[in-house]
Each structure stands twice: as C-alpha cells, then as structure tokens.
Amino acid sequence: MKVTLFATCIVDLFQSNVGKATVELLERLGCEVEFPLSQVCCGQPAYNSGYVKEAKEAMKRMIETFEHAEYIVSPSGSCAYMFREYPHVFQGDPVWEPRAQKLADKTYELTQFIVEVLGIEDVGARFEGNVTYHTSCHMTRLLGVKEPPMILLKNVKGLKFTELPGKERCCGFGGTFSVKNVAISEQMVDEKVHHVEETGAQYLVGADAACLMNIGGRMERLGKPVKVLHIAEVLNSR
C-alpha cells in the first residue's frame, strides 16, 4: 500500500522526530511511504484568521501536491481535518471543489489510518512507563477520531495507561487563539497541566504536535518533570 505523508508545518520545522517515527512505523506495517517536497502549509492559520483568499492559494498548492496520492496520512488530527474542510472552502467552484473532495476522501490521521484502513490494533510496540493521553479538540470534535489512539495505546506492551481528568477540555492553544487571547490561553493550559499532574503519569502523549508543544512548553516553564511524546513515537518504540 502506497502512503503519502502530509507532515504538517510544526512536524516538518520543529518536531522532525515525529515525522521520522511516523515513516518508520508505517513502513514497519507494510506501507511504502513517499514525502512530496512541494507540500506547504495547509492554510489553516490564515483561514481561521479570516484570510480566506490568501489561504486558498496554499490550499490549491496542497491539492496539486497530493492529487495523485493513493492515501494521505498525517500525524496531526488538526491538519488532517483541514484537508477534510477543503470541499467546504471551495464549495461552488466547478474546478476546485471536486478536486478538494477527492483529496478529503483519501486523507486520514495516523492512528485512524492504522486502525480503520490497515485494520491493525496492535502494532507490536513496547514502551515502559505510566502514560496519560491528551485528546485534542480538532481531532476528536471535528475529525471525529476518538477510539483509534486509545485502542493502539492500550495494546502497547509495558505501557500503563491513566486517563486524563477533564480530557475533553481544550489545552488553550487553538492556533491563533493562544496568540490573540494570551491570558485566557494561559489559564486553560495551566488547568491542563494540573490535570496531567493529578494522574501521576511520567509521559503525556497526544496526536497533535501543536497541542503537545503548547502543553509541553508550559510544563517546562513551570519546571514539571513530565515528558511529552507524540503517539507516533510511542507506537514506534520496540
């Protein structure tokens, strides 16, 4: 099965270890992975800020880049959801709406792809430690992916799982929200950090690099000892 990796800006620029783990994991599961160098931002930050015209230029570039992919897989629920949103953005456009729909129909978040497309619930990973999991808003509420990460984590050998209190609450990132509403965002992430501490977990795991960057950055500033990992890194552990 041929998979085209949509790495996302944050993974590509700041967390290349997540991209590497994603590729290694998919290859171990029997996929051939390609990475188009022409991929850029999916347009979500500009679109969410109201710059629809400008965002569409990036979106068109991404549609052209991934048009011939068999499956598109991303280690980010938020960015995968943005691809799913493209048909709405180009609604009524006789040229770009059908192309956007084809892109959306073959786009998956990493854990969703493993469980729902590959049909794999145990990737053969081993990870020693007490783990809690942050359910990011876009992935669960908009993309609708809730069970796949839980299924995969609970089948990791050696992993002790502790559910995160208030898991349904936003971490305060929300893309540009954290920039425009700093004081509110800080209170939200502080609440999330408090809940992480309540679990006694050694590791905070999530499937969206942006949320993990936000929570991890706050914990580092506060001197908390909890290590932050993307789920791809855990699932790629042997």
What's this model, at a glance?
The protein has 238 residues and is an alpha/beta fold. It has helices at 9-13, 16-28, 44-48, 52-66, 77-89, 96-105, 110-117, 137-142, 147-154, 177-180, 182-199, 209-221, 231-235; strands at residues 2-5, 32-34, 71-74, 107-109, 126-134, 157-161, 203-206, 227-230.
Neighbour order of strands in the largest sheet: 2-1-3-4
- The ordered H/E elements are EHHEHHEHHEHEHHEHHEHEH
Biggest sheet architecture = 4 strands, parallel
Summing up helix and strand content along with how strands pair, one would put the structural category as alpha/beta
C-alpha end-to-end distance? 23 Å
Low-confidence region ranges: none
Shape verdict = globular
Indicate the percent of residues in helices: 40-55%
Mean pLDDT: 96
Q: Give the beta-strand count.
A: 8
CA gyration radius, whole angstroms:
18 Å
Number of H/I helices: 13
| Beta-strand share of residues | 15-25%
Keywords:
four-stranded parallel sheet; globular; 13 helices; 238 residues; alpha/beta
Could you explain how this protein is built, in words?
There is one protein chain. By secondary structure, this protein is α/β, with parallel strands linked by helices. 52% of the residues lie in helices and 15% in strands. It has 13 helices and 8 strands. The protein has helices spanning 9-13, 16-28, 44-48, 52-66, 77-89, 96-105, 110-117, 137-142, 147-154, 177-180, 182-199, 209-221, 231-235; strands at residues 2-5, 32-34, 71-74, 107-109, 126-134, 157-161, 203-206, 227-230. The protein has a 4-stranded parallel sheet, with helices on both faces. Strands 6-5-7-8 form a 4-stranded parallel sheet, sandwiched between helices. Helix 11 (182-199) packs across helix 12. The two termini are 23 Å apart. The model has no long low-confidence stretch (mean pLDDT 96).
